[in-house]
Amino acid sequence: MAAKSQICSIWLGSETGILKGVSLSKKQAFNFCEMSCLSRDQEVCVMAWGDSHESEVLVGSVNGTVKTFSTDKGIFTATRECGDASQGRFTGLAVTDSAMITCVESGLLKVWKEDNSDTVEVNVGKNVYRMRQNPSQHNLVATGGKENPLKVWDLERPEKPIFTAKNVAHDWLDMRVPVWVRDIGFIPDSDKIVTCTGHHQVHVYDPSSPQRRPVLEAHFGEYPLTALSLPASQGTVVVGNTHGMLAILDLRKGLVRGSLKGLSGAVRGLHCHPSLPLVASCGLDRFLRVHSLEDRSLQHKVYLKSRLNCVLFSSRELEVSFFYPDLSGDVKEVKADEEDDEVWDSMETVIEKTKKRPVCED
Amino acid sequence: MDKTEATLSKDVSKKKSKTKKQKREVETDVAPVEERNQMEKSESAPCFPPTFSVSEIKNKQRRHSMFLKFKEERRKNKLLLKKKKKKERKALGDKAPPKEVPKTIDNQRVYDETTVNPEDEEVAYDEGTDEFSAYFNRLTNPKVLITTSDRPRGRTVRFCNQLATVIPHAHVYYRRGLALKRVIPQCVSRGFTYLMVINEDRKVPMFSFTGRITDGMVLCHLPDGPTAHFKLSSVRLRKEIKRKGKSPTEHVPEVILNNFTTRLGHSIGRLFAALFPHDPQFVGRQVATFHNQRDFIFFRFHRYIFKNEKKAGIQELGPRFTLKLRSLQKGTFDSKFGEYEWVHKRHEMDSSRRKFHL
Fold this sequence. Notes:
The structure holds two protein chains of two kinds.
Chain A (H helix, E strand, L loop, with lengths): L1 H6 L2 E5 L4 E5 L4 E5 L11 E6 L6 E6 L3 E6 L4 E7 L8 E6 L3 E6 L3 E6 L6 E4 L4 E6 L6 E6 L2 E7 L8 E2 L16 E6 L6 E5 L3 E5 L10 E4 L5 E5 L6 E6 L4 E5 L5 E5 L6 E6 L5 E6 L3 E6 L5 E6 L4 E6 L4 H6 L8 E3 L6 H6 L16
Parallel strand pairs in A: 3-29
Antiparallel strand pairs in A: 1-2, 1-28, 2-3, 4-5, 5-6, 6-7, 8-9, 9-10, 10-11, 12-13, 13-14, 14-15, 16-17, 17-18, 18-19, 20-21, 21-22, 22-23, 24-25, 25-26, 26-27
Chain B lengths: L7 H17 L5 H12 L18 H33 L28 H8 L4 H4 L7 E5 L5 H13 L3 E3 L7 H10 L4 E10 L7 E11 L5 E10 L17 E5 L4 H11 L12 E8 L2 E11 L5 E19 L8 E5 L2 H4 L9
Parallel strand pairs in B: 1-2, 1-3, 6-7
Antiparallel strand pairs in B: 3-4, 4-5, 5-9, 7-8, 8-9, 9-10
GO biological process, one term (chain B): maturation of 5.8S rRNA
Keywords (chain B): Ribosome biogenesis, rRNA processing
Function (chain B): May be required for ribosome biogenesis.
């Protein structure tokens, strides 16, 4: 179990409640489920890294529990009740120094401290579709939803948001443009925030500028945009919509730089690799696809049998496969036996040495 | 032109060589006669110059007759070859090599990795708890509402009525310009499990009358189930079917679902299966077949009778149509904001003739 989870570079959460790990270099996919009894109310809604070393994955389910999965040990180490199904699904999960932040659809944003004491509660409005944390400043979170504009909250001063976005001006028929924020991203090295909406718009907001309206507005397609991710290289954003169209948009002018082909179902989760130009996408068509952002080609395609909700890219280990790319390799699914800890613990843990990069400069 | 058919080949060849020669030098009448004699001698094997092809003859009639001869020749050779092979096979008896299976597009189908393995637990669990689980666990009985697009014309109306005789517990309602999103909650409250909308399109040929064709079907499973949008073609109403039987009776038919192998195919197969009640009445001897071949789903409705233990006779009743899946959307009908589980994208998915998705 531990060996299998240590080599996985992509983690996915599915609608059946199974946490899946995929190793691209070994071309294998593994299921990590806690018990042999699965149920639909364990459907994974959100996933996040537990810490900056990416040794723990936090998995939030529909029934309100947040499970911690350790990638080193390969088992679920902790479960925490963070609300119940009556408040709606989890729409965001994040971790600060010692606390966990969760947000549900009804608008209740809670900060859970380790010792189960004094949770900070904030009401961010109804119909929240997404909550995201600023990767550089961990006390800032942004929320948005249907008819719930983008709000940036500072958790140290949770009474009022530090930034509330204003809706764009009326359209050419002088009618109010509806608001539906589906996904949010913080642009690194700046204050700016990108959102994608259910009305196929992409907005860039700048809280440091005096205007509360979007600084940039771009359109893509005719279908709601469901997921967004910012690649390592600046100036672009990858968005996906409900028809399975993935596009790379340029953030300077708001034009479509290119689209990534291959998906046939709605995109539910998108994640760009932290350093390499790769993007992993998962959706309702039960496939994980990894595309390269430079030439927009499909690098890997994995069939994973259940509809997938979220995807997480780990920043390690991919160096091996990147320099020896395999085009759409067949990944065989390997069933992981649960609770065979004794066998695995008694074996030596195998630590893979990353191969040295070929020296190519100078 | 005065020459007879029999000598036509010689004639043409002579003409051909003559034209060729004329390119180089002026020909007297002597040389072609010599040539012709030569041709006559080597008549047994048609010897044309190696670069000659039938398409180079400019005269259409001659070209056509040459081609017919060529085809005849080829057919004869093929038959000879077949006979020879058969003789060899007979002679060898048991030691003959196995018969070669001809390649068909269905044989050469690209292996689809989403093909469902019957022992797969995860897929079984996924199917066991999806939106159709209520039907397959015998908790609900199907009740179908059939309607059309607004202002349907005769053919579509007749088609809907015939569908209603084929599907038990089906009710046809006139559309009256209602929005589907408003119809759906009302259906749910009245206990319907399926909404079937037959779409009609205005086929406007260049200058003539405006005809209508039935070309689309939306099948929406009701409590919160998937919505499938199909392209409907080849619709044959009962009176257009030759040698048909009497009209279908009220008995619940059996359902046959053929060749739905992939995961998507499974979902669609279950969608069709949930249209009909669970227990077929074998007294009625009626069967509805959904046969999937190369992503086209053929619907037929038959009545069968067992003549003896080995033979059964079938009579086709009822309408016949073919469906092609265009999209499968999760949730009830919401084409603008719904999430699609599968969308048919022609340029990406139809690039290979041997890849099928259902």
